[in-house]
Amino acid sequence: MRAPLTLLTLLAGLSLVTAPSHAHRMHAGVTEIAVNARTAELEIIHRIYAHDLMEALDRTGLDAVDFLATPDGMAAVGAYAAGAFRMADTDGELLEPAFVGAEIDGEFAWIYFAAPVPAEQASFIVDNDLLAETFDDQVMMTNLRFNSLVRTAMQGPGRRTPVRVRFSND
Q: Please, which contacts does 65-72 make with residues 24 or more away whose CB atoms are closer than 8 Å?
């Protein structure tokens, strides 16, 4: 009876030792895009894991909250997200969102941008490559909300090309 108990104890101990390496196995994030009725601007909000962001910025030794508390940290996050996320209007003209800021809330980094709302909203082209250069398995879901319609663009392994999201039957 002692051998099975010892084996169970050993397996339980190994699972505790290996658990952190298996935590957060999937790399995923969400981007929400909607028109703010109050400001009449397009709001773009990215939510990704803070420790993944720090790895993408090659700042793994730093605390994300402390890093974002510095002007250099805030500038690095804004520049990174602006380069990794692109969005174009129906005609393919790139939008130029302005970086508003970023914050850490628990395990997530929230990154905020704003842009003028394009006159034509029949469709948008989304290219959401946040963290894709750092993690091969990164998946980004982009939800677009316009005129009470919601459309979703998924990008991840095997599908990294820009996605056209339609709001009309054109």
A: 65/104, 68/102, 68/103, 68/104, 68/109
Mean pLDDT for 67-84 is: 97
Q: In what order do the strands lie in the sheet with 163-166?
A: 85-88, 123-128, 163-166
- What are the DSSP E strand ranges found in the chain? 28-36, 41-49, 85-88, 98-105, 108-116, 123-128, 139-146, 149-155, 163-166
Q: Give the CA dihedral 156, 158, 160, 165, nearest 10 degrees.
A: -80
What pLDDT, in 10s, does the model give residues 87-129? 999 899 999 999 999 999 999 999 999 999 887 778 899 999 9
**Position 134: which residue type?**
T
- pLDDT score of 37: 87
Amino acid symbol at 2: R
Q: Which two tokens stand for residue 154?
A: 């998924």
